[in-house]
Protein backbone atom coordinates (compact mmCIF):
# COMPACT_ATOMS: atom_id res chain seq x y z
CA UNK A 1 0.00 0.00 0.00
CA UNK A 2 1.20 3.47 -0.90
CA UNK A 3 0.51 6.98 0.46
CA UNK A 4 -1.97 7.50 -2.36
CA UNK A 5 -4.00 4.39 -1.54
CA UNK A 6 -7.72 5.00 -0.90
CA UNK A 7 -9.98 3.10 1.49
CA UNK A 8 -13.52 2.41 0.34
CA UNK A 9 -16.18 1.89 3.03
CA UNK A 10 -19.64 0.46 2.40
CA UNK A 11 -22.37 3.10 2.62
CA UNK A 12 -23.86 1.51 5.75
CA UNK A 13 -20.59 1.76 7.67
CA UNK A 14 -19.34 5.11 6.42
CA UNK A 15 -17.41 7.10 9.13
CA UNK A 16 -17.59 10.88 9.01
CA UNK A 17 -14.25 11.78 10.48
CA UNK A 18 -10.99 12.87 9.05
CA UNK A 19 -8.70 9.99 8.20
CA UNK A 20 -4.96 10.26 8.39
CA UNK A 21 -2.97 7.49 6.78
CA UNK A 22 0.48 6.92 8.12
CA UNK A 23 2.94 4.61 6.50
CA UNK A 24 6.21 4.09 8.28
CA UNK A 25 8.80 1.54 7.17
CA UNK A 26 6.12 -0.49 5.45
CA UNK A 27 3.62 -0.37 8.33
CA UNK A 28 0.43 1.54 7.69
CA UNK A 29 -2.10 2.75 10.26
CA UNK A 30 -5.13 4.97 10.52
CA UNK A 31 -5.54 7.68 13.26
CA UNK A 32 -8.75 9.65 13.42
CA UNK A 33 -9.02 13.18 14.75
CA UNK A 34 -11.35 11.83 17.48
CA UNK A 35 -8.73 9.47 18.90
CA UNK A 36 -6.08 12.20 18.67
CA UNK A 37 -8.32 14.54 20.62
CA UNK A 38 -8.94 12.01 23.37
CA UNK A 39 -5.25 11.26 23.78
CA UNK A 40 -4.37 14.96 23.93
CA UNK A 41 -7.04 15.54 26.54
CA UNK A 42 -5.75 12.64 28.65
CA UNK A 43 -2.21 13.95 28.49
CA UNK A 44 -3.39 17.41 29.52
CA UNK A 45 -5.30 16.00 32.49
CA UNK A 46 -2.32 13.94 33.63
CA UNK A 47 -0.09 16.99 33.52
CA UNK A 48 -2.63 19.04 35.41
CA UNK A 49 -3.14 16.39 38.12
CA UNK A 50 0.58 16.27 38.70
CA UNK A 51 0.76 20.02 39.35
CA UNK A 52 -2.04 19.89 41.90
CA UNK A 53 -0.75 16.80 43.66
CA UNK A 54 2.65 18.19 44.58
CA UNK A 55 1.42 21.76 45.14
CA UNK A 56 4.53 23.30 43.64
CA UNK A 57 5.10 25.67 40.78
CA UNK A 58 6.88 24.46 37.63
CA UNK A 59 10.62 24.19 37.96
CA UNK A 60 12.52 27.37 37.25
CA UNK A 61 14.47 27.55 34.05
CA UNK A 62 18.04 26.42 34.35
CA UNK A 63 20.26 29.26 35.41
CA UNK A 64 17.39 31.50 36.59
CA UNK A 65 17.91 32.81 40.14
CA UNK A 66 15.21 32.01 42.69
CA UNK A 67 14.51 34.80 45.22
CA UNK A 68 15.51 33.74 48.70
CA UNK A 69 13.05 34.48 51.56
CA UNK A 70 14.01 37.49 53.63
CA UNK A 71 15.68 36.76 56.94
CA UNK A 72 13.51 37.77 59.91
CA UNK A 73 14.39 40.99 61.69
CA UNK A 74 14.66 40.12 65.37
CA UNK A 75 14.58 42.34 68.42
CA UNK A 76 17.38 42.07 70.94
CA UNK A 77 16.52 43.22 74.45
CA UNK A 78 19.36 45.58 75.47
CA UNK A 79 21.01 45.53 78.91
CA UNK A 80 18.81 46.80 81.72
CA UNK A 81 19.12 50.43 82.74
CA UNK A 82 19.10 50.52 86.51
CA UNK A 83 19.13 54.29 87.07
CA UNK A 84 16.71 57.07 86.31
CA UNK A 85 17.74 60.04 84.19
CA UNK A 86 18.50 62.03 87.34
CA UNK A 87 20.82 59.28 88.61
CA UNK A 88 18.64 57.54 91.20
CA UNK A 89 18.90 53.75 91.51
CA UNK A 90 15.85 51.61 90.74
CA UNK A 91 14.17 50.16 93.83
CA UNK A 92 11.04 48.62 92.33
CA UNK A 93 10.82 45.85 89.75
CA UNK A 94 7.49 44.78 88.30
CA UNK A 95 6.94 42.00 85.78
CA UNK A 96 3.78 41.46 83.73
CA UNK A 97 2.96 38.39 81.62
CA UNK A 98 -0.08 37.17 79.72
CA UNK A 99 0.34 33.46 80.38
CA UNK A 100 -2.48 32.20 78.11
CA UNK A 101 -3.60 29.64 80.69
CA UNK A 102 -1.95 29.47 84.10
CA UNK A 103 -1.93 25.69 84.49
CA UNK A 104 -0.33 25.09 81.10
CA UNK A 105 2.17 27.90 81.73
CA UNK A 106 3.24 26.33 85.03
CA UNK A 107 3.79 23.00 83.25
CA UNK A 108 5.96 24.83 80.71
CA UNK A 109 8.28 25.95 83.55
CA UNK A 110 7.14 29.56 83.52
CA UNK A 111 7.83 29.82 87.26
CA UNK A 112 11.49 28.95 86.71
CA UNK A 113 11.84 32.05 84.57
CA UNK A 114 10.02 34.16 87.18
CA UNK A 115 12.42 33.01 89.89
CA UNK A 116 15.38 34.01 87.74
CA UNK A 117 13.81 37.40 86.95
CA UNK A 118 12.98 37.95 90.65
CA UNK A 119 10.53 40.86 90.44
CA UNK A 120 9.05 42.57 93.51
CA UNK A 121 5.59 42.17 91.99
CA UNK A 122 4.41 39.66 89.39
CA UNK A 123 1.23 40.44 87.43
CA UNK A 124 -0.41 37.78 85.27
CA UNK A 125 -3.20 37.98 82.71
CA UNK A 126 -5.43 35.46 80.95
CA UNK A 127 -4.96 32.96 83.75
CA UNK A 128 -8.08 31.00 82.66
CA UNK A 129 -8.19 29.34 86.05
CA UNK A 130 -10.64 29.50 88.95
CA UNK A 131 -9.04 30.07 92.35
CA UNK A 132 -10.09 26.58 93.50
CA UNK A 133 -8.11 25.07 90.59
CA UNK A 134 -4.84 26.97 91.02
CA UNK A 135 -1.69 24.81 90.81
CA UNK A 136 0.08 24.17 94.10
CA UNK A 137 3.36 25.22 92.48
CA UNK A 138 2.21 28.83 92.40
CA UNK A 139 -0.03 29.05 95.46
CA UNK A 140 2.82 27.82 97.67
CA UNK A 141 5.55 30.09 96.26
CA UNK A 142 7.45 31.52 99.25
CA UNK A 143 8.92 34.30 97.09
CA UNK A 144 5.50 35.96 96.95
CA UNK A 145 3.69 35.63 100.28
CA UNK A 146 0.87 37.95 99.20
CA UNK A 147 -1.19 36.63 96.29
CA UNK A 148 -4.39 37.97 94.74
CA UNK A 149 -6.62 36.38 92.10
CA UNK A 150 -9.58 37.46 89.99
CA UNK A 151 -11.56 35.30 87.57
CA UNK A 152 -14.73 35.26 85.54
CA UNK A 153 -17.91 34.85 87.59
CA UNK A 154 -19.79 33.23 84.73
CA UNK A 155 -17.23 31.31 82.66
CA UNK A 156 -14.66 29.15 84.37
CA UNK A 157 -11.48 29.01 82.31
CA UNK A 158 -12.07 32.45 80.79
CA UNK A 159 -10.10 35.68 81.26
CA UNK A 160 -8.62 36.13 84.75
CA UNK A 161 -5.76 38.12 86.30
CA UNK A 162 -3.42 37.71 89.26
CA UNK A 163 -0.99 39.78 91.32
CA UNK A 164 1.76 38.27 93.45
CA UNK A 165 3.68 40.59 95.80
CA UNK A 166 6.73 40.33 98.01
CA UNK A 167 5.48 43.22 100.15
CA UNK A 168 1.88 43.41 101.30
CA UNK A 169 -0.05 46.27 99.67
CA UNK A 170 -1.99 48.73 101.80
CA UNK A 171 -5.19 47.72 100.04
CA UNK A 172 -6.33 45.51 97.15
CA UNK A 173 -9.51 45.93 95.10
CA UNK A 174 -11.03 44.01 92.21
CA UNK A 175 -12.64 45.42 89.07
CA UNK A 176 -13.42 49.04 88.23
CA UNK A 177 -16.79 49.41 89.89
CA UNK A 178 -18.85 48.46 86.84
CA UNK A 179 -20.65 45.11 87.04
CA UNK A 180 -20.76 44.78 83.26
CA UNK A 181 -16.96 44.62 83.22
CA UNK A 182 -16.11 43.29 86.66
CA UNK A 183 -17.91 39.95 86.21
CA UNK A 184 -15.20 38.92 83.72
CA UNK A 185 -12.33 39.22 86.23
CA UNK A 186 -10.09 41.62 84.31
CA UNK A 187 -8.61 44.08 86.83
CA UNK A 188 -6.78 44.02 90.17
CA UNK A 189 -5.61 47.24 91.84
CA UNK A 190 -3.08 47.33 94.67
CA UNK A 191 -2.36 50.45 96.68
CA UNK A 192 1.21 50.97 97.84
CA UNK A 193 2.49 53.90 99.95
CA UNK A 194 3.47 56.09 96.97
CA UNK A 195 1.53 54.69 93.98
CA UNK A 196 -1.24 52.43 92.73
CA UNK A 197 -0.46 49.35 90.66
CA UNK A 198 -3.21 48.23 88.27
CA UNK A 199 -2.98 45.04 86.27
CA UNK A 200 -5.53 44.54 83.50
CA UNK A 201 -6.53 42.14 80.78
CA UNK A 202 -8.38 44.43 78.38
CA UNK A 203 -11.24 42.82 76.39
CA UNK A 204 -10.44 41.68 72.87
CA UNK A 205 -12.78 43.02 70.19
CA UNK A 206 -13.05 39.51 68.81
CA UNK A 207 -13.02 37.86 65.43
CA UNK A 208 -15.14 39.91 63.09
CA UNK A 209 -15.06 42.74 65.69
CA UNK A 210 -18.15 41.30 67.37
CA UNK A 211 -17.20 42.99 70.68
CA UNK A 212 -15.91 46.27 69.31
CA UNK A 213 -18.84 48.28 70.68
CA UNK A 214 -18.32 46.72 74.10
CA UNK A 215 -14.60 47.44 73.85
CA UNK A 216 -15.29 51.12 73.09
CA UNK A 217 -17.45 51.34 76.22
CA UNK A 218 -14.72 49.62 78.24
CA UNK A 219 -12.06 52.07 77.02
CA UNK A 220 -14.11 55.09 78.13
CA UNK A 221 -14.99 53.67 81.55
CA UNK A 222 -11.56 52.22 82.24
CA UNK A 223 -9.94 55.58 81.46
CA UNK A 224 -12.34 57.26 83.88
CA UNK A 225 -11.40 54.72 86.56
CA UNK A 226 -7.68 55.33 86.07
CA UNK A 227 -8.12 59.09 86.05
CA UNK A 228 -9.94 58.93 89.38
CA UNK A 229 -7.10 56.89 90.89
CA UNK A 230 -4.52 59.31 89.49
CA UNK A 231 -6.15 62.15 91.40
CA UNK A 232 -5.32 60.32 94.63
CA UNK A 233 -1.89 58.86 93.80
CA UNK A 234 0.11 58.31 90.63
CA UNK A 235 -0.27 54.87 89.10
CA UNK A 236 1.37 52.15 87.08
CA UNK A 237 -0.92 50.26 84.68
CA UNK A 238 0.42 46.98 83.34
CA UNK A 239 -0.94 44.09 81.35
CA UNK A 240 -2.29 42.96 78.02
CA UNK A 241 -4.07 46.07 76.73
CA UNK A 242 -5.03 44.35 73.47
CA UNK A 243 -4.05 47.21 71.17
CA UNK A 244 -1.04 47.95 68.98
CA UNK A 245 -0.95 51.70 69.29
CA UNK A 246 0.98 52.75 66.19
CA UNK A 247 2.07 51.09 62.96
CA UNK A 248 5.53 50.56 64.44
CA UNK A 249 3.90 48.33 67.07
CA UNK A 250 3.06 45.43 64.75
CA UNK A 251 4.64 43.73 61.78
CA UNK A 252 1.79 43.90 59.26
CA UNK A 253 0.02 47.18 59.87
CA UNK A 254 -1.56 47.55 56.42
CA UNK A 255 -3.33 44.21 56.53
CA UNK A 256 -4.68 44.57 60.07
CA UNK A 257 -6.47 47.91 60.10
CA UNK A 258 -9.85 46.19 60.28
CA UNK A 259 -8.78 43.47 62.69
CA UNK A 260 -9.12 43.36 66.47
CA UNK A 261 -6.22 45.11 68.17
CA UNK A 262 -5.49 47.61 65.42
CA UNK A 263 -8.81 49.24 64.52
CA UNK A 264 -9.04 53.01 64.43
CA UNK A 265 -11.44 52.88 67.37
CA UNK A 266 -9.11 50.88 69.63
CA UNK A 267 -6.11 53.00 68.75
CA UNK A 268 -8.11 56.15 69.44
CA UNK A 269 -9.07 54.73 72.83
CA UNK A 270 -5.37 54.40 73.66
CA UNK A 271 -4.76 57.92 72.35
CA UNK A 272 -7.38 59.20 74.77
CA UNK A 273 -5.72 57.38 77.65
CA UNK A 274 -2.38 59.02 76.89
CA UNK A 275 -4.09 62.39 76.48
CA UNK A 276 -5.45 62.01 80.02
CA UNK A 277 -1.92 62.32 81.40
CA UNK A 278 -0.47 58.83 81.06
CA UNK A 279 2.66 57.65 79.22
CA UNK A 280 3.63 54.48 77.37
CA UNK A 281 6.91 53.77 79.18
CA UNK A 282 8.50 51.74 76.37
CA UNK A 283 7.94 54.44 73.76
CA UNK A 284 9.10 57.08 76.23
CA UNK A 285 12.49 55.38 76.31
CA UNK A 286 12.60 53.81 72.83
CA UNK A 287 10.51 56.04 70.53
CA UNK A 288 11.88 54.67 67.23
CA UNK A 289 12.46 51.02 68.14
CA UNK A 290 10.82 48.78 65.54
CA UNK A 291 10.32 45.00 65.58
CA UNK A 292 9.80 44.99 69.37
CA UNK A 293 6.75 42.80 69.96
CA UNK A 294 5.18 40.98 72.91
CA UNK A 295 2.67 38.70 71.15
CA UNK A 296 2.96 36.22 68.28
CA UNK A 297 0.24 33.88 67.07
CA UNK A 298 1.09 30.19 67.32
CA UNK A 299 0.34 29.80 63.61
CA UNK A 300 2.81 29.91 60.69
CA UNK A 301 5.97 30.03 62.85
CA UNK A 302 5.19 33.66 63.61
CA UNK A 303 7.46 33.89 66.62
CA UNK A 304 10.55 32.54 64.87
CA UNK A 305 9.86 34.98 62.03
CA UNK A 306 9.13 37.80 64.53
CA UNK A 307 5.78 38.55 62.93
CA UNK A 308 4.17 39.99 66.03
CA UNK A 309 2.32 42.72 67.89
CA UNK A 310 3.20 44.88 70.90
CA UNK A 311 0.08 44.43 73.04
CA UNK A 312 1.58 44.45 76.55
CA UNK A 313 2.45 47.72 78.28
CA UNK A 314 3.58 49.58 81.34
CA UNK A 315 1.67 52.87 81.32
CA UNK A 316 2.70 55.45 83.91
CA UNK A 317 1.21 58.60 85.40
CA UNK A 318 3.24 61.65 84.42
CA UNK A 319 4.26 62.12 88.05
CA UNK A 320 6.17 58.82 87.96
CA UNK A 321 8.20 59.56 84.83
CA UNK A 322 11.19 61.08 86.69
CA UNK A 323 11.64 57.70 88.40
CA UNK A 324 11.44 55.63 85.20
CA UNK A 325 14.62 53.60 84.68
CA UNK A 326 13.78 51.00 82.04
CA UNK A 327 10.90 49.22 80.33
CA UNK A 328 11.90 45.78 79.08
CA UNK A 329 10.54 43.28 76.56
CA UNK A 330 11.79 39.81 77.55
CA UNK A 331 11.17 38.24 74.16
CA UNK A 332 13.41 35.22 74.82
CA UNK A 333 11.15 33.92 77.60
CA UNK A 334 8.93 31.08 76.39
CA UNK A 335 5.79 29.47 77.77
CA UNK A 336 2.99 31.52 76.20
CA UNK A 337 2.04 33.27 72.97
CA UNK A 338 3.01 36.47 74.82
CA UNK A 339 6.38 37.23 76.36
CA UNK A 340 6.84 38.94 79.74
CA UNK A 341 7.66 42.61 80.17
CA UNK A 342 9.50 44.18 83.12
CA UNK A 343 9.60 47.70 84.56
CA UNK A 344 12.47 49.18 86.59
CA UNK A 345 11.57 52.34 88.49
CA UNK A 346 12.29 54.49 91.52
CA UNK A 347 9.44 54.93 93.98
UniProtKB/TrEMBL annotation:
Probably binds two magnesium or manganese ions per subunit. The record marks 242 as: Transition state stabilizer. The record marks 338 as: Interaction with DNA substrate. The active site is at 201, 240 (proton donor/acceptor), 338 (proton acceptor). Pfam families: Exo_endo_phos (PF03372). Residues 96-338 form the Endonuclease/exonuclease/phosphatase domain. Its main location: nucleus. Keywords: Cytoplasm, DNA damage, DNA repair, DNA-binding, Endonuclease, Hydrolase, Magnesium, Manganese, Metal-binding, Mitochondrion, Nuclease, Nucleus. InterPro entries: AP_endonuc_1, AP_endonuclease_F1_BS, AP_endonuclease_F1_CS, Endo/exonu/phosph_ase_sf, Endo/exonuclease/phosphatase. Signal peptide: none annotated. Initiates repair of AP sites in DNA by catalyzing hydrolytic incision of the phosphodiester backbone immediately adjacent to the damage, generating a single-strand break with 5'-deoxyribose phosphate and 3'-hydroxyl ends. This is exodeoxyribonuclease III. It is found in: Nucleus; Cytoplasm; Mitochondrion. Its EC number is 3.1.11.2. One of its GO terms (molecular function) is phosphoric diester hydrolase activity. PANTHER family: AP ENDONUCLEASE, DNA-(APURINIC OR APYRIMIDINIC SITE) ENDONUCLEASE. Residues 42-54 have a biased composition (Basic and acidic residues). It is an enzyme of class 3 (hydrolase). The record marks 312 as: Important for catalytic activity. Belongs to the DNA repair enzymes AP/ExoA family.
Amino acid sequence: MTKSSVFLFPAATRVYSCVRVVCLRGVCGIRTSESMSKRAKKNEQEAGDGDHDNGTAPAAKKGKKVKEPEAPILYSDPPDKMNSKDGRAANMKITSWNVDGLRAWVKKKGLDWVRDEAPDVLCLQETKCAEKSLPDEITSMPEFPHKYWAGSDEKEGYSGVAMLCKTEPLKVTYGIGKEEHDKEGRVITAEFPTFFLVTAYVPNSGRGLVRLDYRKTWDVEFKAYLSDLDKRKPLVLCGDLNVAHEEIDLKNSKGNKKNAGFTAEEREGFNQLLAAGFTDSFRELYPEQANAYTFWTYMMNSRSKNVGWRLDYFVLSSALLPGLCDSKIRNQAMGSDHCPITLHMVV
